[in-house]
Structures are given as structure tokens and as C-alpha cells.
Amino acid sequence: QVLSLPIVVIVHGNQDNNAKATVLWDNAFSEIDRVPFVVAERVPWEKMCDTLNLKFMAEVQTTKGLLKEHYFFLAQKIFNDHSARLEDFQSRHVSWAQFNKEILPGRGFTFWQWFDGVLDLTKRCLKSYWSDRLIVGFISKQYVCKLLSAEPDGTFLLRFSDSEIGGVTIAYVIRGKDGSSQVENIQPFSAKDLSIRSLGDRIRDLGQLRNLYPNIPKDQAFGSHYNSEWGVGG
Question: Which of 55, 156, 213, 233 would bridge with 172, disulfide CB 3.0–4.6 Å?
């Protein structure tokens, strides 16, 4: 006999997401000499960060992993705590329930369902943009407003949607003649949307977008991702 990697048997495709979560948790956090099927119910957040980073890099097949500010956003999301500092999360433990059972506040999905959607979208449509560090991705809408509100008109950045599974959205600042600013978020693009027209071409199409935050002209940032045709449409 020999110990294998964890296996979950499913009978329907809608169980796939939960099965992947079970395999990931078991593979990352079980002890080699454990009683069969026994896995810790709670694990250190720092260990979870390492696991999410390795999973992200392996799935997307990129050398550009998650950054410290990404972990901070993910911690705020999974713990539903927006008042703690980055250091405060380092000593915390995250539970299986927080990871894949409890529905995120105001949403219809769990943390893992949301993160797995980001993985799938990035792997299928955004690998080159992520690898070129053109996508901030893991950042809250509130923090985006804080960053962009002081920037020139048309400054934008890309973030993963909070409200939809597997969506990427563009946030940009509009500055009025009186100097006031307003940050707008474009309806998130799904993998289906981006298979019809790429993200680079969509950014080129949108005339209100001028500079990628903090101050890179959009043609300079995304030019290598434009297709050669200039018409609108797929």
C-alpha cells in the first residue's frame, strides 16, 4: 500500500469547486503521519498565504506571484475585517469554514469560490497581463477610490470583481472642470467577454482611459497586447 495525493469523487460538475477546495486544503495542511482523513480545522494565515500563492502561480503558469498588498486584501476579505492592519493578520488562524463554507458578507459565494473564479479567469484570459504586472487585481473598491481620486483625469487600474465570480473590472477617475473627482467602475468582463474581444483591445477602445496607474500612458502599457486590427468588435 502507498499513500496517494488526496482524491475526491464527485457525481456532478457542480461539485467540482468544493472538491478542489477539499483537495487543496488536505494537500497543503495534512500531516504525513496523520490518522487517515484527519486534517486541521484551522491553519495559520501565513501558511494559507503560501498555499494560495503556490496555487495561483501553478494554475496561471506564471513566475509573478502574489504580493504583500494582495495578501492584505485577501485577509480583509476572508476575515471580514477592514479595520485591522497588515501585521494584525499575521498571528491569526483561518478555518475551513471561512475558506469554503461560510458565504462572504453580501455575496452568494464563499471565499474559495471567488478565488477559484479569479484563478480560472486569469489562467484563461489574463496570464500575459498579470505576468507584465498590468493588473493590480486583489484590491478593494474603497482603496481604489482612495488611490485614484487624487490622480489626473483618465487614470485607471484593473481589479478583480468583488461582486461577480471570475470577473475583471476597470476603475478610472473622471475629473470635472471644478477639479472634483469621481471614480467609475466599468461592468466586469468575464472569460466569455474576453474571448470575444481581448482586454487589451477593450482598453484601447475606451477613449476615457488615458494612463495606467500611477502614470503610464495606456498605449505604452498595453500596446504589446493590442491586436493589429483597429475595428470595434470581435
Answer: 156
Beta-bridged to residue 175, according to DSSP, are: 181
pLDDT tens track for 117-174: 999 999 999 999 999 999 999 998 888 998 898 899 999 999 999 989 999 999 999 9
In the numeric block, the cell 476572508 is attached to 78
User: 4 lies in a domain?
Assistant: no
Query: How many domains are there within the chain?
Result: 1
Cα 144 to Cα 156: distance, rounded to the nearest angstrom: 9
Going 198 to 199 to 201 to 202, the CA torsion angle's sign is positive
* Host H or E run for residue 154: none
Is 233 within the bounds of a domain? no
* Owning domain of residue 96: 13-225
Handedness of CA 27, 112, 191, 82 (dihedral sign): negative
Asked whether residue 2 is domain-assigned, the answer is no
Give 32-63 pLDDT, tens digit per residue: 666 555 667 888 999 999 999 999 999 999 99
Facing residues of 82 across strands?
none
pTM: 0.83
More confident residue, 78 or 1: 78
Beta strands in the chain (DSSP E): 42-44, 93-95, 155-160, 168-175, 181-185, 211-212, 216-217
Please tell me the distance from the alpha carbon of residue 37 to that of residue 26, in angstroms, as a whole number.
8
